[in-house]
Design brief:
This protein folds into 2 domains: 1-31, no CATH class; 37-147, PH-domain like. The chain has a 7-stranded antiparallel sheet, with helices on both faces. It is built from 3 helices and 7 strands. The radius of gyration is 16 Å and the shape is globular. It is of the alpha+beta class and 148 residues long. A hairpin with a 2-residue loop joins strand 2 (49-58) and strand 3.
């Protein structure tokens, strides 16, 4: 896919260099990917360790692929299937609130094992990611309940 072929809908007022960065951030340059509902650049934090890369939302869970620099530092792909999630939380609960310690807004994925994974989307896409993850998780739960 060439830069001229990208869909610039809603970005016509941005300078070319900024549209390029937005396209890279949101994964627009990759084109369509079968089975992927949403994808984009994020930082995934587990405890004190943070990794940057590409997050893909699929019908059965999330898949994280670290960027090339993170791979050099030993980062690996990580899948978080919906069956290991016990909850999805926005921190702080409402936009505009401040987290203690000056932490950035994030999506907290609670795992059944008792731990959690924090997802920090690039740009202002936190609520869009949160809505997409919650919608896919709800669909997955309905399908799992119907199959049982």
């Amino acid at each position: 896919m060439h830069v001229r072929d990208w869909d610039w809908t809603g970005d016509a007022d941005r300078p070319d260099w900024e549209r390029l960065l937005v396209g890279l951030r949101d994964g627009a340059f990759l084109g369509l990917e079968p089975g992927v509902r949403k994808r984009g650049l994020v930082s995934v934090n587990v405890g004190w360790l943070a990794r940057g890369g590409l997050l893909r939302l699929r019908a059965d869970g999330l898949e994280f692929a670290p960027n090339p620099l993170e791979r050099l530092l030993g980062a690996r792909r990580r899948s978080i299937p919906f069956d290991v999630l016990s909850g999805i939380e926005r921190r702080p609960r409402r936009p505009g609130e401040v987290l203690p310690g000056g932490e950035r807004e994030r999506i907290r994925l609670h795992l059944e094992s008792g731990g959690h994974v924090d997802v920090l989307p690039a740009g202002d896409g936190l609520d869009a990611w949160l809505d997409a993850i919650r919608a896919e998780y709800a669909l997955w739960r309905r399908r799992a309940t119907a199959a049982a």
